[in-house]
Amino acid sequence: MEKGECILYPCYFNAALSRAEGRRVPRNIAAKGPNANDVERALRRLGIACQAEEHHHPAHWARHEGRIIATYTGKKEALIKKVARAIEVRK
Predict the structure, then answer these.
(1) 46 in a domain, yes or no?
(2) What is the 3-state secondary structure (H, E, C) of 7-56?
(3) What is the pTM of this model?
(4) Are the beta carbons of 15 and 91 closer than 8 angstroms?
(5) What is the pLDDT of residues 51-60, one digit of tens each?
(6) CATH of the domain at 27
């Protein structure tokens, strides 16, 4: 991973998961069953360069949900919240 890159997994935005299971945003801005394409679309709408990969979250190795590498120089938590608000798939 290069400097200025953030790895985002769809589980960060999944309202069905608990914080212990990997969700990183509050439930009120989380999405229902987001996938890597939803995260990628949200990043592109925000004007953030990104690239999808066929990898999985280490804790969810059997799901093969993919991941997104975003080029972002700010804090990862700020990026995660921006993306969560931009994802169109909601509860």
Answers:
(1) yes
(2) EECHHHHECCCCCCCCCCCCHHHCECCCCHHHHHHHHHHCCCCEEEECCC
(3) 0.89
(4) yes
(5) 999 988 888 7
(6) 3.30.56.30
